[in-house]
Amino acid sequence: MRLTLGLRGDWIIDPRELAARLDVSADDLKRMERQGYVDARIKAVEGDDAGQTCVTVRLLNKGWRGTFDRGGALIREEMW
Question: Which of 5, 10, 31, 54 lies 20 to 30 A from 44 at CA?
Answer without folding.
Answer: 31
